[in-house]
Amino acid sequence: MIRLTDVEKSFDTKPSPTYVLRRINLTIQPGEFVTIMGPSGAGKSTLLAILGMLDGEYRGQYEFKGQQVQPLKPKQRAELAKQSVGFVFQQYHLLDDLTVAENLDLPLSYRDIKTSERKARVGDILDRFQIVGKKDLYPRQLSGGQQQLVAVARAVITRPTLLLADEPTGALHSSQGKMIMELLKELNGEGMTIVQVTHSEENARYGHRIAGLRDGWLDKEAEAA
User: Are 213 and 43 contacting, i.e. CB atoms less than 8 angstroms apart?
Assistant: First the structure.
């Protein structure tokens, strides 16, 4: 599903460039659950941004479902990401002036989906994530765990083939974090490919393997699936 070949990311600094990622070679098979771990500044979030097609300024090759991503124009890259990738962020990124139901409907509104189907999908996801009673509330009226549940629900409502999670439980207490990780495990069991960035060894155990990053370099054993 994903193949990165000699991917590098750097910034122009003097007297020499500052590298964030160095010669990244990584293969992720459909249905895998891969964890990216490493110290702060190792390049984890940068790698996630490239995988999510948010960043096109890098060298090397990125093949996604048989298509070369790097040569795509920004609009084409954004369209491919919209059709295939879901994001879960540590800081939720919910829109404060929209209700829970409206936040969930938003990504569907960007697609050619009939209103009746959008309503059905929102209803299904509210039920699955056990947040039906929160549908008319605003994010500020929810606890941190509830906001993250909504964020995960919003990320998967479009049924992406790839879910990217950046420290999905970083701001939650242990019981809330376990609930989120169990949901990710369940989604992966249904066939969704998941890549998570985390500092938590406990969260890492939910995945199939760990890709370690340090100073922009990937552990050799993490390269091939």
Answer: yes
Dihedral sign, CA of 85, 21, 75, 72?
Answer: negative
- Neighbouring residues of 53: CB distance < 8 A, sequence distance ≥ 6: 64, 69, 77, 78, 80, 81, 85
pLDDT of residue 110: 86
Cα–Cα distance between 104 and 107 in angstroms, integer?
7
Sorted by where each begins, the domain ranges of the chain are 2-222
- pLDDT value of residue 76: 95
Q: What is the pTM of this model?
A: 0.90
What values do phi and psi take at 149, rounded to 5? -60, -45
Homologous superfamily of 2-222 in CATH?
Answer: P-loop containing nucleotide triphosphate hydrolases (3.40.50.300)
Q: Can you tell me the distance from the alpha carbon of 202 to that of 206, in angstroms, rounded to the nearest whole number?
A: 7
pLDDT averaged per 10 residues in sequence order, the chain, 225 residues: 96 90 96 94 93 94 95 93 90 91 94 91 93 95 90 92 91 83 93 94 93 90 52
- Contacts by residues 24-28 (CB-CB < 8 Å, ≥ 24 positions apart): 24/60, 24/218, 25/218, 25/223, 26/2, 26/211, 26/218, 26/222, 26/223, 27/2, 27/3, 27/223, 27/224, 27/225, 28/1, 28/2, 28/3, 28/193, 28/195, 28/225
